[in-house]
Amino acid sequence: MSAEHRTRCPFCHTLFRVTDDQLAQAAGQVRCGSCNSVFDGAEFRVPDEPDLLADRATWSAPAGEPESGREAVPAVELPTSESVADRPFDVSSPEPESDAEAPFQVAAPPHRGDRMVGLLKGVAGLLALILLLQLLHYYANPLAQRSEGLRWMLEPYCGVTGCHIDPRRDIHAFRVVSRDIRSHPNVAHALVISATMINTATFAQPYPVFEISLTDVHGSIVATRLFMPREYLEDPDQAVALMPAQLPVRVTMEVFDPGEHAVGFEFAFH
């Protein structure tokens, strides 16, 4: 049989008995039956004290005759230690101020399965985060083109991760404010078309593809051509920059002269 000791809860100071076998079950960790706190039962052991009431004892007057004017004190029998020290403790109504021994519970060590569940949850959360970041990287450009609010959030993200977001575009914001067509001064059977266009949007955007269509008297197209920015800008290096907002830009294009059938021309942007 293992030795029995006394230990005191450091939280509510309740005293109770505990054996070596009970302390060994959970590396000394016990749970107080009064306040439900867990503590090291071995660390807070109370030193064993001799039981002063272990044997029956009596008090009596000194031997011999009693002194004059005094009566002998009759023997008084003290209660035995069994009636006090070994009185069972009623756990249903503990007294907080007494040292009566209280029941305890051995604190169960963490279950291995619980640790595994926690680990799996952490791994699942990490994988979900990685998948979300991959989706943002792949769909950053279409999401930014669809919503300016998302663009505002995704541009800093792509600045760090390297994903690409195209500049804002509004093809309907381009306007031709003046135009002119004449014969080419140096090339036979060629025309020079000059125009001034403006970006009416509130933001700079890439230069558009310029389409010119020549039409006859019936409005039918007799000739058409697409011009890239580097072909119609006076400075081809300017084509890689953005067209500023609300500023007119002069453009020049050369086309083949389809003859007298072409009496008008139209512009379109792509």
Describe the structure.
This protein has 270 residues and is an alpha+beta fold. It folds into three domains: 1-53 and 79-109, no CATH class; 112-161, no CATH class; 171-269, Sandwich (Immunoglobulin-like), CATH 2.60.40. It has five helices and 16 strands. It has a three-stranded antiparallel beta sheet. It has a three-stranded antiparallel beta sheet with strand order 4-3-8. Helix 3 crosses helix 4. The protein is rod-shaped. Residues 52-101 have low confidence and may be disordered.
What value does the Rg take, in angstroms? 50 Å
* Strand line-up in the sheet with most strands: 2-1-5
The SS-based structural class is alpha+beta
Q: What would CATH call the class of the largest domain?
A: Mainly Beta
Tertiary shape: rod-shaped
Distance between the termini: 95 Å
CATH architecture of the largest domain: Sandwich
Overall average residue pLDDT: 75
The description of the largest β-sheet is: 3 strands, antiparallel
Indicate the percent of residues in helices.
10-25%
What series of H and E elements makes up the topology? EEHEEEEEHEHHEEEEEHEEE
Which residues form runs of ≥5 with pLDDT under 50?
52-101
Number of domains: 3
Helix run count:
5
Total strands: the figure is 16
